[in-house]
Amino acid sequence: MSIRLTTIRLRSAAILPGAPPLRVFQISDLHLGAVLDRVRLEKVVELAREARPDLVAITGDTLDARVGLDAYIPLLSSLNAPLGKFA
Q1: Which of 5, 64, 82, 83 could form a disulfide with 33 if both were Cys (CB 3.0 to 4.6 A apart)?
Q2: Residue 3: what pLDDT?
Q3: Nearest Cα residue to 37 out of 77, 58, 64, 6
């Protein structure tokens, strides 16, 4: 599995002209335990830190059904995002 960072710029008429950009870092398909181990998760977290997001969204297929999340919580909790972290 490769870890990729893709930047997508969205424009909307609902956003006021001159408003600062909103940086959202979305993480998906981690499959922690089955596909992604702690070392690779550290790389994902490092990419997130470098992106300096305003908001972090962790969506879908986060955890393998047979693996506990306890080993990964401290690393995911270390992410900083002024507008919050959501999963």
Answers
A1: 64
A2: 81
A3: 64
